[in-house]
Amino acid sequence: MPLRAPSIRRRLLLHLLLLLVPALADFPDRYSSPRPGASAGAGLGNAPAQEYLDPTYPTPRPPPSAPSCVVPVLSYSFANTYGAPPATAAYAPPAGCPAPWSLVVLSFSAAITGDQYDRVAAVWLDGAELLRTTTAEPTPDGIRWTVRKDVTRHSALLRDPPGGVLSVMLENLVNDQYTGVYNVSVSLEFHGVPAYLADAGSSSSAGAVDSNPPTPTLPESYFQPADLILPISEATGNSIGFWFRIQNSSDSRSKLVSVPSSTYRAVLEVFVSPHSNDEFWYSNPPDIYIRENNLTTGRGNAAYREVVVSVDHHFAGSFVPFPVIYTGGINPLFWQPMAALGAFNLPTYDVELTPFLGLLVDGKAHEIALSVVDGIAEWLVDANLHLWLDPASSSVSAALDRYRTPRLSITRRYSTRLLDGSFKIRAKRKSRFSGWVKSSFGNFTTEVETELKATSVVEFTHQGRNKTVRLQAEQETEITVRSSETGKEVGKVETEAKFPLWLEMVTEDGGNGTYVMRANLTHSLSVETGAEAEGLFEREARLADEQAAAGWMLVRDHAVVNGSAATTQAYRYSDGAGRVERAIDTLDGAVLSDNVTESYSALGVAASTAACCRGRRCHGIVAAKCSDVAAM
Ligand SMILES: *[C@@H]1O[C@H](CO)[C@@H](O)[C@H](O)[C@H]1NC(C)=O
Ligand SMILES: *[C@@H]1O[C@H](CO)[C@@H](O)[C@H](O)[C@H]1NC(C)=O
Ligand SMILES: *[C@@H]1O[C@H](CO)[C@@H](O)[C@H](O)[C@H]1NC(C)=O
Ligand SMILES: *[C@@H]1O[C@H](CO)[C@@H](O)[C@H](O)[C@H]1NC(C)=O
Ligand SMILES: *[C@@H]1O[C@H](CO)[C@@H](O)[C@H](O)[C@H]1NC(C)=O
Ligand SMILES: *[C@@H]1O[C@H](CO)[C@@H](O)[C@H](O)[C@H]1NC(C)=O
Ligand SMILES: *[C@@H]1O[C@H](CO)[C@@H](O)[C@H](O)[C@H]1NC(C)=O
Ligand SMILES: *[C@@H]1O[C@H](CO)[C@@H](O)[C@H](O)[C@H]1NC(C)=O
Ligand SMILES: *[C@@H]1O[C@H](CO)[C@@H](O)[C@H](O)[C@H]1NC(C)=O
């Protein structure tokens, strides 16, 4: 997805193709794709707009008989919006459905007809991001889709927005050739807490204060949405968008924030999307290969990336981002009418910052910074700092325990012979931080232990005409909260995330200035979470989301002129309350089958809702299933 002048990139690619038609150094790539065989000419067809599917993160069901309200916020046609400020609209919480809410869903709907590239977009409320999304490429008959995202964890902002301005950025270019205008509407759907759940909760409120047991326990509020959310985003976002635009590995972007001195828990929620030369970072060869073959592609710097969070220049956490494939990526026919994993709702990554509160709660401004190891232009990155405040005291005391910067160990094995080459990278980082916070709930020590492992292989064979990409990224995080006095464990969250990707592609000269590209792809997103809190709940959740795609395309310039593709998807989610499975088969733009199986255990629902913080308000933790991929 080029954020800068795609026309130049189109010329670049053409130039490259003349040099060496079938070399794959510049692939995967992105293409515009009026569906082969679809009627030509914008809007001439009589067929209704086709509905595109986003099967990645189904939103949870609201509890039965909860009052609900829908607030339409913004409606905008994104035509020639390249370089323009974000579209804005006023937002206020619904009078008819006051907080607290059991579930809040953000709904982003788009419709478009004609010819257009995929684009990146984001929704912010007062500079704090709520959704990162990418768009689907239209057909002449038109397409539409809706992304629904659970934003309950952003209740503090939605309840009490400091400015009440919702912004949507979507940079689009419209000309004679790329005619598609994205019509977008954003609304928010609020579900209240039904009386039967509100009552269930109040009888068992917080541990330490009421019951005074020998060891204090974590309060329920610890697992509910944060009390305050501070955006870590571009200060001049009103004119250029609130994301930081990271250009290289030494480009660290930061924001100074003052954290209330009553903060007893802090979690940073990070949004990222790579573009331009790093859109396909997991398949980039090292620069030596590009140089030795006199290639002109900017897609280099090899195939490892890691997003790093730091607090006052202390490394505080990191993750390998899930490789999201946008709808024009690899072979756009793969993604009609089902988007790739996460393309409509990009995963976000949580970094637990509670051990660092000792640095933050002194009432002064501190720097939270974001950077990308080995990144090249460009990465759109920002974050929200979620803070939980002590209701009974205006200041906590806290300290970070002994701190050592964890080392990234990385080995690279490269071999090249003209256009053939093999590039292997192994990366590993282990970190362990702990810190204590004494609030009115007690003195608790939080220890965060993370282990990140990634293996990346990019291989070119057959004079560079065949390319194989394998990525295996794995991250395990364990957050343990103990009573600082007795050492007894009072809460624990374990998360294990895995992102395997395998891609095989072959190009051949198609004659007459065209080429044929065949590709096979499998990728998956798997996240397992276990959470328990003494006296409150114990729960496990598992998500396994997989896609496999195979097909070919005939390409002239950057346009797909013929081709065929089949994609299958299997989504499986289970937790104490039930399981959801969805299996979808698509072929050449049509859905062949879409099977959904859901089962809920009545006992499970009752137990999880009663034990787990009244309704869905413990989302931050339990819904680690969904969009919060990395460290919870
Ligand atoms: C987008 O909105 C414009 C203006 O309301 C309308 O004319 C056009 O038909 C819409 N396009 C689609 C694809 O819905
Ligand atoms: C990295 O990007 C920043 C911001 O664009 C720029 O100022 C800096 O010169 C770049 N550094 C390198 C080594 O390219
Ligand atoms: C790259 O260019 C240099 C200088 O023009 C030339 O000597 C070399 O043979 C070229 N290498 C390849 C692989 O084409
Ligand atoms: C390249 O791919 C083609 C088509 O899949 C296959 O027949 C050929 O054996 C491959 N060549 C190499 C060197 O991998
Ligand atoms: C909290 O516990 C830590 C670790 O045991 C201890 O060093 C610290 O002094 C305690 N803080 C307070 C304010 O009691
Ligand atoms: C080659 O492509 C051009 C359009 O780019 C077309 O007009 C011409 O008929 C094609 N020739 C052959 C032999 O397919
Ligand atoms: C894709 O997989 C099929 C079936 O396993 C195989 O026949 C084909 O050669 C593969 N294509 C590529 C480009 O690797
Ligand atoms: C597309 O390719 C298929 C299979 O090779 C062929 O039968 C068909 O005629 C092609 N369509 C066009 C428009 O070239
Ligand atoms: C959906 O169910 C039908 C009937 O049982 C089966 O034939 C089909 O293969 C299933 N589709 C998927 C994608 O599992």
From TrEMBL:
| Signal sequence extent | 1-25
Q: What is this protein called?
A: Peptide N-acetyl-beta-D-glucosaminyl asparaginase amidase A N-terminal domain-containing protein
The uppermost taxa in this organism's lineage are: Eukaryota, Viridiplantae, Streptophyta, Embryophyta, Tracheophyta
Q: Name one Pfam family in it.
A: PNGaseA
Q: Which UniProt keywords apply?
A: Signal
Q: Where is this region: Disordered?
A: 35-64
Does Signal show up as a keyword for this record? yes
Q: Which InterPro entries match?
A: PNGase_A, PNGaseA_N
Q: Which domain of life is it from?
A: Eukaryota
Q: Name all Peptide N-acetyl-beta-D-glucosaminyl asparaginase amidase A N-terminal domain ranges.
A: 65-404
Species for this entry? Panicum miliaceum (Proso millet)
